[in-house]
Every structure is written in C-alpha cells, then in structure tokens.
Amino acid sequence: MTGWIDRALAEHDQEQHVRRGSPQPAPGTVREESVLERIDRTRRARPRVREDRITMSHGAGGKATQSLVEAIFLEAFRNPLLEPLEDGASLRIGDSRLALTTDSYVVSPLFFPGGDIGDLAVNGTVNDLSMTGATPLYLTAGFILEEGFPVDDLTRIVTSMAKAASEAGVQIVTGDTKVVERGKADGCYINTAGIGLIAPDVNLGVAHARPGDVIMVSGPIGDHGITIMLARGELDIEADVVSDTAPLNGLVADLLESTTGIRALRDATRGGVATILNEIARAADVGVLVSEDAIPVRYPVRGASELLGIDPMYVACEGRMVVVVDETGAEPALAALRAHPLGAEAAVIGRVTADPAGIVQLRTSFGGTRIVDLLVGDPLPRIC
Amino acid sequence: MRFVDEFRDSDKARALAAKITSLCEPGRQYKLMEVCGGHTHTIYKHGLEDYLPEQVTLVHGPGCPVCVIPMGRVDDAMALASEPDVIMTSFGDMMRVPGSNGSFFDAKARGTDIRMVYSPLDALKIAKQNPDRRVVFMAIGFETTAPSTAMTVLRAASSGLTNFSIFCNHVTIIPAIKAILDSPDLRLDGFIGPGHVSTVIGCRPYEFIARDYGKPVVVAGFEPLDILQSIYMLMLQLSAGEAKIENQYSRVVPWDGNITALKAIGETMELRPYFEWRGLGFISHSALKVREAYAAFDAELIFKVPGVRVADPKACQCGEVLKGVLKPWECKVFGTACTPETPIGTCMVSPEGACAAYYNYGRLTRTRVKEAIRT
Amino acid sequence: MCLGIPGEVIEFLPDQPDLVRVDVSGVRRVINVGLLADDMPEPGEWVLIHVGFALSKIDEAEAAAALEFLESIGQAYDDEIAALAESRIE
Known about the structure:
Strand content of chain A: 15-25%
Helix content of chain A: 25-40%
Radius of gyration of chain A: 22 Å
Structural class of chain A: alpha+beta
Shape of chain A: globular
Number of strands of chain A: 15
Largest interface: A-B, 55 and 60 residues
Order of helices and strands of chain C: EEEEEH
Oligomer: heterotrimer
Shape of chain C: elongated
Strand content of chain C: 35-45%
Largest sheet of chain C: 5 strands, antiparallel
Radius of gyration of chain C: 20 Å
Structural class of chain C: alpha+beta
C-alpha cells in the first residue's frame, strides 16, 4: 500500500529536478516562500483520484468530490456546457436560454425537524435553478424505494413535495419509480431534474467575481447540517435547531430586480459556505477575505459545532445562498434580501480581493488571519 | 458563549501583544514550545502568530496523541477491526491516520465495521445494543482522556458486559517533555504547558523542568487570550531570570489535579515498561496498558495483534516536526506529497498536528497576510 | 483531542447518580460527572467537558480574576494609547 507514497515521492523528485535549473532560494523566510509556491503549483496540477474505491469523502462536497468530478466525470463527458461546473447548465435552445439541473437526495434520517427528504428534493432543485438566475418551472421526480418501506412514509414525503412545489410555484411533470431489495436504498432515495428559463440579460457565474466585489450571505449558516446530525440521535444532543430548507426563487427574483450588479449566486449545501468561497476564489482566480464576526450563526448551531469540534463554515445549509455583487450594487442588494422573509438576517461577510489569488482568508474575531481551505474528509455524511 | 467569548477579545490581545513586545531584549530570540496539540490548533485557527513580535518563535511539541502513534500500532488496530464480529469504535481524529494498508477510513470503504464515536461511553452503548458482536474501543489520548476510558472500563465491569474491550494507546506527557529537554538539537527558553492534561495531573509534575533544567513553564488555557497571557507570563519570568511553574488556566486546572481521575486510571491501568512514540523512539514508562484485574477488557489479550514494528516511510520527517526541530514547511514532502488528503505522516492527519494546522490555516507568509488586510 | 469545552449544569438525571444534563450555548447533552465525585457540581455551576465526561469544575472566582487581569491590561493599554494620542513632544 506504500505504492502511492513512492509515486508521490517520485513526483516530488521530478519537480526538484525541474527546479534545479532555477537559482536556489536563500535560507530563512525565502525558503518558506518557495515551499508555499511549490504547494500552489501542486494544488493547481491536474486533479487525480488516488483511491481505488469510493469513500464517503467523495460525497462530502469538498476536495475529494471536486477531484472526482473533474478527474472522472468531466474527463469523460467534457464539453463547453459542462465545464463551468455551476449548479445548473445554461443551454441555448432556439431563442430561449434554459437552465437544466439534476440532484439526488440520500439524506438520513428521512424526516427531521423543519422538513423531510421531499422538501429537500423540491427546494434543492428549485434553488440550483435559481442560482443560475433562472426562473424555475418544471421538475422531475425519480424514486428509488426499498422493499418494505412503509407506504404511509412515502405518502408523507410526496405530500411534502407537493406543498413545496406549490409554494415555489413549480410543477412536477414527470417521474419514475424503482424498487430495490430490502437492505438497499435506505428507505427512499429521490433523484430530480429541474428546468427553468433564464432572462436574456441575466448572466451569473462564480468566474465573474472581480476584486472589489462584495460577498453576502442570505441568513444564518449551518442550521440544516446540525439539525441532521442531531436528528440521527447518535450523539445524545438536544438543541432548538431546525433545518433551513426553503425555496429561494422568490428571494432571487427580488435580488435580481434590485440591481444589475449581481455576479454570482450559490446555495451553500454540502461543504457549506467555506466550499462556495473556495469555488469563487478558484473559478475567478481571485482572493476572498471574509470576517468571522460578520458571519451570522445561530447560538445553538455555534454551541453544537463547538461541542463536536466542527466549523460552522463547512456545515450544510439548504435555504441559504452566497451572493457576489459588484460594489455599486451592494446596498440595494442587501436591502432587497432583508426585505424578504427568507433574507431577513442577510449580512455582508467580506470582499473579493486581487491577492492572494485562489485563496480564501478569514479575519478571526480575535483579529488574526487564517486560511479557510476546502474540506478534507466528511464531518457530516449524508446531509442532503 | 460564556468562558469562551471573554477570552477572545481582540483589544485585550493587542494589549498583551504590546506587553510581550516590550519585554523582548533587543537582539535576543525567544523560543517557546507549546506542548499541546490543542494549543497548536488554537494558535493557527485564530491567527495568533500575527500578534507576536518577530523575536518570539513558537515551536510545536509532541502533545498530539494521534500524531505520536507509530504505524505498527495503527496496523494492529486495523487487524482488530478486521476480526469477523468486531465493531471497531474510534474518535474522529483517528479515522484518517495511515497505517501500512491505509487508514480506518479506507477500511470502512472496503466494508469493515468501524464507527466514529464522540465518547467512550458511546462505544459502551454500542456494545450493549449489539450483544452478539464484540466492540473494541480505540483508546488514545494523554492523561486528559485516560480517566474517561478508565471510567468506561469500570462501568463495563460493573454492568457485567462481556463484549467490550479497549485497545489501549494512552500515553503520558511528562516522559515526552523530558525527551524533548534531553534532546541535543533543541534550545528552548520555556514551555506553554498543556492545559487539559493538567486538570488531571495537576501542576506539580512539571516542577522538575524548572528545578532541573531551569526553564519556566506556564500552564495555559485554550482560548487565544489564554495563550497570549501565558506567553506574557513566560516573558516576565525570562526577563527576571526566573524559572518556575505558573498556572494561567487556574479557572479550570487545580494545582493538585483530579485525584478521582488519577485513582480511576490507577485502578484500571498501569505503565508499560516502554512504548514507541512516532518520531521520538522508545520511551520508558511513557504509556498505559490495561491492568491484569481488568484483562477481560484488554483487546490485546482477547485478540491476536500482529505487534510488528513498522518503520516510518523514508520521506516522513514527522519525528523532527514533533520534536520542534523542523517547522512544518521545512519537511521535504510538506504540501506536495504529504497533504491533508494524502497524508504520509500523522502530523498532517490529525487536526492538531502542526503540519495540518499550518497547511489548513497558517499557510500564508506574514507579509502577504498584512498586505491582504490592508486592501 | 484536547477538545474540552465549558458547559453549565442544568439538572441531575433522576435515577442515574453519575449523569447530568449540561447546556453548551443552547445545546443540551447528558454527560458523566463521575470524575468529580469528590465535589459534585450543582445545577448552575460550570464544568469542563471532554469526550462526554466532566473533567473539572470551572472556578468562577478564578475566571473572574483572570478576566479582571485582562481588563486591567486592556485598560492600561487604552490609557497608554490615549496618553500617546494626547502627548506632544515637540
């Protein structure tokens, strides 16, 4: 099993060999600089999946997921429409621009304070479409059911979906049902696809972020992930937290009407706000600087996170988005968010900077600075 | 949050930083070791080094109980986990520590029943709920955690459980500190003493450091102000030419420690004659094993463990990082072959490891940080 | 691993002498106080929690003293900064 270590060392030696042509750095702080440069180069190298089996990390929304998507899926399917790897694909059909998205829901437990897998499925899909700037219109719903799953539970889930769809103003127009043997599918898995219409003047994408842009979050973070973790009942922790699952299309519509300066929208699901910030930094090759004090976190979410040793910035939300807006549009954007019930606690959390590119920094409440990197591993599996 | 927020106030931090700076003798370098992994984590998480003058360097010590577990012991744990009816239970930080054949995490992907727990009591609960399986708890940690493992074993004994055992890898802090002090490659001026270990062992065990080696020790809390205040107290001692043990974390640490906790450890465990520490080699009387009276709960006796000593990969310089001889970025494979996703050594795997802390949080030179903040 | 965090004792569990319910920033959890047998905490007192056990009681007097020291440092610093701002050497 040390094979991969040998391979990694061989790469390292190769790199050193290449560098030998360039002048040797002087000792001291310059040495640190050169190591950091080496790290940057390594991080920008082509993604590769080193494992020979899928692990839970691949589903966490962090580094492993990113590597998997880029090295396996993007490699195989590569085309210009897929490459942006946004929440939904933007397609031109005739004179219209459509957004198309797909999602699967494997949350455990199926029912939790604040919602169930059905709510998540509808709201999550509606949100992915909204993040591209589209007006969500039609959804599909494919069910994979486990033999033995109570029909009452299925009815409960489907009723939630109908209600959520009605609230969001979308229709579920087609679907599919499969049943698998007892022991697979953990009760019920749901897959969805969604389609929406993008207005001609709307063009959102994380790659559009520019230095000087303002970054906002639409409300307190981490509610959903912590709710799920506590609902699993393995930790014997009780707290007054409920999932924040909600359809954001109304909020997005208000936001887009308030200013033309919106650069990008992303809903902070798996991997949390920290993952979104890293996606921005990477896609636009910019720096991101946020302030710990400015990030809204509910009191019990903070307590549960401290108790478990997790950082709320990596915890999933299901009804919150990160907004990147041009400096001039920041004030109207924030006002529009706060005027809407789902954005009442919206806050400015930081800015896009020119330097250091590709890196997300946090100014701690304490006044120091640290990096917020992409998640490694999976603190909260099966969150959505 | 009470007892937390008050110790994170940035104005007070600036005040302490100013005081620390004023105590620096011109031209003198100060090297202070923070022994405890939790301190390393706080320092990087809150960007504490931004507050310290250039003359004060913090050196990270071996106080990360995950980091010091040699690969051979990880292999032993993996062997236990692969026994047919075993449910292996472990703290989260152990899940990604690499042995010769991958980590618990990798084994889990291959189908081994390994479960993450928050407390050894959770492992006990799993044993009660699964009477037809045998539950093994991977017991790691310094004297901070040993009492909790001990209490759990006592509870298992009193409830007559027959399917619960521990794989004991508890280590003790004093021999590690002594090994550092005796190490020729290090020249330290003082120690930021471990906070939570001291709630159990008290402050007396550190007296030999001041008495025999002439170095001051300040037992420190884990909030950023605790650490800054402890550095300030060390600097006060150094500028007065003193060397004594002080307790900054007095709100939590009793000078005499926790007798009940020590008794629980003493009842269920005893010192091994020697134990291998990753990077530090074999240290005598530095680790605990289950006492004969509680043999029914000792996984090493119930199951066969390979017990093979495995050398660290040639490239791995964890040992030197653990001793504080090297800073993380000075390790040849830091950040390239060895990253948090592909850790070669434990310093990168454990969230308290110096390398992980630096990679995840501190990985910017000070000048770049200052520039970024100004914009 | 050194993860220890302060929590407030809310109540003892009725038939389990070693277990109490604590509150950590609005989150409630049951923990074992067996290690504090010599000096059991009362509801309203604070303890340090580590892997499901209370390791130590938080001494409010010491905590207050610690904060007072920090306040004094802070005050001295503020005074000095103020003095610096007001003084003129030229």
